[in-house]
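User: For documentation purposes, I need each entry recorded in a consistent format: the amino acid sequence on its own, followed directly by the corresponding C-alpha cells. There are two entries in this batch. Please keep commentary to a minimum and don't merge the entries.

Assistant: Recorded as requested. Entry 1:
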Amino acid sequence: MAPPHSADPAGEVFTTIVAEHVRRIEQRLPPALADEDDAVHRLRTAVRRLRTVLAVYRPVFDRNEVKQLRRRLAELGDVLGEARDLEVRRADVESVGAAASVSRDARARLVAELDREHAAAHARFVDYAGGLQMRATTAELIRWVREPPRGKAADRRAGKVARQRLRKAVDRVGRAAADLDLQALAEVTVEDLDDRAALDDLLARAHRLRKAGRRLSQGARAVTRTPTKVLGSSAKELGAAGKAVQSSLGDHRDALLLALLARDHAAEAAAHGEDPAPYDRLARAATRRAADALADLPDAVDQLTSKAP
C-alpha cells in the first residue's frame, strides 16, 4: 500500500514540509537567543534541515528563489555554527580529557578560553538576530509559507519526485565516497596534524561526504514522517544509513578539531617554558577517538551505494 501522500502534488506536500520547518525555526529562536541549554544546536539543526530540504527537492520550487533562501539560511547557520562548535569543543575537553587523565588545571585553562570565545560568538549571534539581514531572512521565510514560489515539478506526484531526488542524493554520497581515502582518514596521527595542507585536503573530502550523508538523511526524513509521508521503509533505511555516514564523520571532525586545539596549546606551552605533556596527552586521546568514530563508516557507505529508493 502506497504511503498516504505519494500521489499528491509535490507542490502541496513540500509546501507543507517547508512550513513545518519554518515553524520550528520560529519556535527555537527565542531559547537560542537566551542561550538555553542545547538551544543553539536545536536552532542550527532546524535551519540546516530546511536548507537541505530546499536543496534536495529544488525542482518543486523556483530555482532562483531556492538559491536566494538557501544563501540566507547558510549565513544564519554559519553564525550559529561558531557558538555551537565551541560548545562541542568545551564538552569534548572535559569528556576526552577526563578519560585520558589530563590534569584538571590543563582542562580548566582550555575550558576557560573556550567559554570566553563562546560568549563572544553568542553575542555575535544575538547582534545578527537583531539586524537587517535576519529581518530580511524572516520576511523571506514568511513569504515562502504564504506564497511558495512554484517550480517545474510542483504538479508532479510527490512520491515520484521524492524517489528521483533521493536517488540523486544517494549518487552524491557514492561520488563523495569514491573521492575519499577512508583508510588514510582513519590513520591520521598526532604528528600528521602538523602537516595542515595535506590534512586540510583530506578533511575537505571528508566534509563533502559528511554533507552528502546529511543531505540524504534529512531529505529522507522529510518524506517518511507524518503528516507528509510519501515514501516508506526503503527510504527510511536509506535515511538511517545517510545519518550513520553523517554522524560518523561528524564525530571524527569534532575529535580532530579537539586534537588540533590541544596540539596548538602544547606548542604554545613549550614556547613559554611550560609543560606541554597534558595537551599532548589530550591530542593523542582525541586522535584515537577520531579513528574510532570511523569504525562503522565503510559499512554505511556500502549499504548506501548498493541501494536506491
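Entry 2:
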Amino acid sequence: MKYEAITIKDIAKDLGLSTSTVSRALRGSYEISAETRKLVLEYAEKLNYRPNPIALSLKEKRSRSIGIVVCEIANNFFSQVINGIESVAYKKGYYVIISQSHESFEREVANTQYLASRSVDGLLISLSTETTDLSHLNKLHDKGLPIVFFDRITEEMSTHKVIANNFNGAYQATEHLIREGFRRIAHLTISPHLSITKERLAGYKAALADHHLPYDESLVQYCKYGGLIDAETMEAVDNLLALKEKPDALVAASDKLSTGCLAALARRKVRVPEEMAIVGFTNSLLTDIFHPALTSVRQPAFEMGQVAMEMLIDLIESKHPITKFETRVLNTELSVRSSSLKV
C-alpha cells in the first residue's frame, strides 16, 4: 500500500476549516486567533503532519538540502566530517544528501549531476583521486550553484575552501621520527596531483632538509587509491622492502594507507617499530588498540565539516554576490604512540 502523507487539506477537512486558515495557523500568523492556532497545531501534531518539502522549495525557491560528495563514508575522516556538516545543517534548517565517489571520476560526475538535478542549494565536495578534469563542477558553478571544497581542494575554482594544515602535519610526523633516531624515512601517499598529496609531501621534504637528511625519490611510493585496494598498498610496501637500503621508518599520508601499512608489514613479518617505525595520518578511534598502538596525525575533521557548512550557508544566503573567498586552514595534532618509538 502506498504511503500517503498528511496534507493541509486533510487537516482543514477534519477540522471544518479552510486550507488558508490552517496554513496561516501552522505559520503562526497573527491573523489567526490563539484558540484556532492551538487547535490546528495540536491536531497537526497528533497526525504527525510535516510540511511538504517540495511545496516549500517551490514557494521559497530553495530546497533547503545540501549535496555532499566524499570518496568513502566508511573512512573515519570523512564520516567525522559529515557529522560536523550535519551538526550545523540541522541547526540551520538544512538537510544533507550524501554520495560516495569511491575514488572514481565517473561516479563523482554522476553524483554531482544527480545532486544538481535534485535542486540542492549548494554542494560540499572532496575530490576523488581520479579527478583532474573539473569541467563538471565548473559548469555547475558558472550556473550559480554554490560550491565549497574541503580536504582535497583545487586552485582552479574561486570559492571557499577548508583544509587541514597538511604541510605541518607531515613535517611534525617526519621530524618526530628523525628525533627518535630514524634516518631512512619513507613516505606512502596518494595520487601525485591531489592537493593533500602535494602538501604532505612538501612537509615531509622540508623536515628532511631542515635536519640535513637527503631526499631519496625511491623512498616515496604513490598509491593512487589511497589504501582502498589492499594489493596496491601491499605492492608499495614490497617495493620499499625490496630496496637495497631499506627504510627504517615511514610516514603514511592517509587513513586507509596507515592501517593498511600495519597490516601489510604484519603479513611480511616486519616488526613495528623494531624493524620499521610508522606514523600515519588517521582519525581512527582505535589507534590505541592497534598492535602496536599507532602514532598518528589527527585532522580536525568534525570542525572541518562545521566550517565548510557554515561557509556554504554564507554563500547560499548572501543577498549580494560574494567575490572574496577564503581558504581556511585548520591545525592538525600529532599523537605519539609505540609504533614510532625507537626500541
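Summary note for entry 2:
The longest strand covers residues 65-70.
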